[in-house]
Amino acid sequence: MQANELGMHGVGVDISEFNSMIAHAKVAHVNLLKLNESIKSITYSLQKFLYDSKTTSFEDNLLEELKRFNSEYFPNPEFKLWVKNKRVNEKKYAEEKEKEFLPIYNKLIDEFRIDIKQEKQDNFIDKWYFNSAKEEIDLVFNKIKKIKDVNMQDYTCRHSKQNNSLM
């Protein structure tokens, strides 16, 4: 870093991938206006995708239902006291309430046509992410791949990964 700041040649080695990524970002020659345009464009595309999908509405409705359900059946701090004073068997009670909430969840899944079945489970993303989340990742990744300037493409990818600003 210091050699670059002084306009000198230098070599740096770091065992930490994160620190290397920061160093690369500091010394990379990138057109910041174009980088900003690319990030804004990708962010806009993602926001439009989310707006057009039913995922956000589904999540909002699910959170509202969970809030209502939890305030009724798991009031805070009363529920903690019930468990502490052994008025309630936490595991048994939670299992009962989970069964009660499942129809509400399934109704929302059907209403918003959310695909929760995984076609394959070959890797981490396939196993743990809904299809809608995988579509978001693919959208952003494909937009980054379309950037013609390889240095900026690399930096955009690193920037979005580091800050989760696009997901």
Computed CA radius of gyration, to the nearest angstrom:
23 Å
Oligomer kind: single chain
Give the overall shape, derived from the CA principal axes.
Answer: elongated
Tally of extended strands? 0
Strand % is under 5%
Attribute tags:
71% helix, 167 residues, disordered C terminus
Question: Can you characterise this structure?
Answer:
- 71% of the residues lie in helices and 0% in strands.
- With 167 residues, the protein is mostly helical.
- The model is unreliable at 162-167 (pLDDT under 50).
Give the helix/strand layout:
Elements: H1 2-5, H2 17-27, H3 32-52, H4 55-73, H5 78-84, H6 90-111, H7 124-128, H8 131-145, H9 150-163
Quick description:
The protein is an all-alpha fold and 167 residues long. The chain has helices at residues 2-5, 17-27, 32-52, 55-73, 78-84, 90-111, 124-128, 131-145, 150-163.
